[in-house]
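Working notes for the structural subgroup meeting. M.R. asked for a predicted model of this chain before we commit to crystallization trials. I am recording the input and output together here so anyone reviewing the notebook later can reproduce the run.

Input as submitted:
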Amino acid sequence: MKRLWKWLFITAFSLVLISCKQNKYPDPTFRYYVNDYAESLMQYTERLITAQNRYLYEEYGDIQIVYATFLVKDASDVSKYDRVEIFEQWAPGNKDTDMGFLVILFVTEYVEDGITYQDILEVQMEPGLGLEEYLTATEMNIMRNDYLLANIHYGIIDMKLMQFQYELLNLLYFEVYGEEPLPYDMDEFFDDLMDAPYIHENTGTTDIIGFILSLLSLNGLDIGSGWGIALVVVLLGFGGGFTFIKVRGGGGGSGGRGI
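Returned structure, recorded in token form:
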């Protein structure tokens, strides 16, 4: 029993040291490929993009496209975010080919007739070094202005992002892998978006807690004891920048030439 307590103490202390390194920006969500911190997207959009981008990365092993939305008040709020730092923290793309791609949507809110709406204020993009020859600054600017910042689709963010996503995928599939672009229908996507039911999703938090409690119980440690509580708190990261289980990117680096 003493050896178990010694092991728990060493483990807890090690995790405390790790958790002390707080990240400046939030970690990716459980979905990873779509991190909707501004709560601007419908679940169907998030699930569809996640499926498409996960398939691209797992099937070909190079390109990992990651989206993030952040709610801001104005341009001064945008300046608080550094896309390169976020890229390095989230590390999308294979570390050997550096073909990750981060797209950040900065979203503002406004009230009209008592109803709160959202609009895209600014968009920033950061490609990995291996993608720079396929996604030049000119190409990224054109796509950003034509789809994400354009006055199209009645301002619906889901629609703008999804058209950007389709165009981006077709460009990369063709330029990188030589595959012919696939047609898409935005009217069909809108109908699917409106008809899609809400699906309850397990983000993993409950399973993680259950795993921790089971582990402690199996080893005969009293959950209500000081040791038990302390270890649970440490493993869950004090609600801060450390989590017991993380969904991460492939470890790719930024090229530093985004827009």
